[in-house]
Amino acid sequence: MDNSNIASMFEMLDSSNKGSISFVQYKEALKTLGLCTAEEVLKDDGHGVTFDKFRNEVCICPASLQAFARKL
């Protein structure tokens, strides 16, 4: 997935243009994209998820490797 598509997805989630999305939005986006399962436990650090973090999760590795890497 290229950066412009990822940016478009993030912009749809960040409709208020805060520069971050909530952890719930982030997790739901990853589930929708098939990058995590409903059972997978992701840690919420209490901060919003920035575009850079979002891009890194959906762009760097194939989906199966990302899901595996988050479990480590």
TrEMBL record:
Name used for this protein in its record: EF-hand calcium binding domain 10
Species of origin: Bos taurus (Bovine)
Molecular function via GO: calcium ion binding
Domain EF-hand: start-end pairs: 1-36
